[in-house]
Amino acid sequence: MATNHIIAGQVFVLPDNIDTDQIIPAEYLNLVPTIPEEYEKLGSYALAGLPEGFPRFIRHGANKTEFPILVAGRNFGCGSSREHAPIALAAAGVRALIAESYARIFFRNVVATGVFYPLESAERLRDVFQTGDQAEVNISAGQIRHVPSGRCFSLKPLGAVAPVVEAGGLFAYARKSGMIR
Amino acid sequence: MSMTITEAILARAAGQARVQPGDNVWVNVDILLTHDVCGPGTIGVFHREFGAQARVWNREKVVIIPDHYIFTADEKARRNVETLRAFVREQGLPHFYDPGTPSYQGVCHVALVERGHVRPGEVIVGTDSHTCTHGALGAFATGIGNTDAGFVMGVGKILLKVPPTLRFRIEGSVPPYLMAKDLILRIIGEIGFDGASYCAMEFAGSAVEALDIEERMTICNMAIEAGGKNGIIAPDEQAIAYVRARTNKPFEPVFGDPNAPVEREFVFNADRLEPCVAEPHVPSNYALARERANVRIDRAYIGSCTGGKLTDFLAAARILKGRRVKVPTFLVPATADVAEALIREPMDGTSLVEIFAQAGCEDIAPPSCAACLGGPPDTYGRTRDREVVISTTNRNFPGRMGSKLAPIYLASPLTVAASAVTGHITDPREFL
Description:
- The structure holds 2 protein chains of 2 kinds.
- Chain A has helices at 20-23, 36-44, 84-92, 104-113, 162-167, 170-176; strands at 6-13, 69-71, 96-99, 117-120, 134-138, 143-146, 151-154.
- Chain A is α/β, with parallel strands linked by helices.
- In chain B, helix 2 packs across helix 5, helix 6 (180-191) packs parallel to helix 8 and helix 11 (310-320) runs parallel beside helix 14 (413-422).
- Chain B starts with a helix and ends in a 10-residue tail after the last helix.
- The longest helix of chain B is centred in the first third of the chain and has 17 residues, at 75-91.
- In chain B, strands 12-11-18-17-13-14 form a 6-stranded mixed β-sheet, sandwiched between helices. A 4-stranded parallel β-sheet of chain B has the order 3-2-4-5, covered by helices on one side. Chain B has a 4-stranded parallel β-sheet with strand order 9-8-7-10.
- Chain B is globular, with a radius of gyration of 21 Å.
């Protein structure tokens, strides 16, 4: 996965404890992520489980989101082990996810699939960013910039999983390290 | 340095004399579990990465238990079960519990235990977050995604970070109005929804030792609701006898050193705990049942890997025998074994099925995950609109049981049954 680029676009802001049912409701788990047209369909339902009162993540009738950057709170992705969750976000067009912390299986699924970078912020970004604000995520510099105010916030280093994410996921990593052919 | 049971199991499975928290180790897997919702995607990853002609690493170690979307007209759900059948034929897998045949079991976590696939000291991974249930028999068990599972299917190994252990000692004795569900909801309420993130949750103490195996499963099952990587209880004579009665396969239990350092120890006294609920919309929203008597309910639900075992129905029957429910009460036995026991098992001469029928409960549904996770629109017991539900299941996130507007209260089968009788949240001590 290329690290030397900047991801820019509108931010969608989420609270603490966004669970996998809110990311992709269970009724859509009949879709199989490895079937290309069902992968696309999963994207169209990304965050369809958010309670009433949230702005729409995906405009009615669209397949992709206008928000390539997610800013979330604590324990993002808690609940089920469904890999449909990171895949739905990726298929919808999410390119960067910044949470205060992740639930373990969701984080692992993001790393294993290599769909995007699971980034962590030290600060409570959702007090600064509002849905619709422009942001720039600089992966190699480990920073997110809030464009309206010009403020920059540092992101935590990936740590032990960095080699897997940088290889592009579990299988690419296992091939690179000689674990499988 | 001495090791906890979780560390000792992972060390053995990694072929190392010792491991410590934070180590990343390749571990040999003893059982890979999958089902109809994540199995087809896992198979897709397996064939995409290892090739169309690839064979699973060990046919004896792959267990496929369809359970999520079984009794539905949904075409894709039916296709997914067909995908599993085709894979089982292609690979010649011996452990497949096929819907619509006598081998069909129901909820994978209860069936995996009942059919003898869970053995002390082994490493179990499954494409379902509630795989942590199997720590109840002294195994290391954790939930994984399709990509990890596709990898395991091909090579039989998984890269795991050794988790630090949080030990929960529950001392004293469990009063007759309290169940394992009350204990684990208390723990989750105490440490919070992410209080055990990346950690092993080890349960010990006299109250845990006194629990039967199904109640131990309830405790380990909900480790994930505090973010735990695995839940585990040291295997004792009861656990070993339970496993021996269900499999001829040899196994070697692993024990931890009681002096092994743990990240943190929590101590509870079971005698002082009270029946409780988890209020919407996270399982850590702990409240005493008696303090929520003002909450009116529209339906009650007893089922799932957490609360659909025989012990759960026996508990509900203690309350419902000779009483009538005031709200629609849905009963979904976890497995075929549980369903059969409801017919066979008498309580004071009356079968559980009769007790529930006389209490005015809905007809008992065939075993599956049913409305625990919502599912397709025609799923049995799926919530509608703003119905307030009290349930023995494991999660109360918005929309978890179907309708995003339906508030879900989690509780023990005793508390659910007592609430069904009164129509509002009720402490079961009112009837015991």
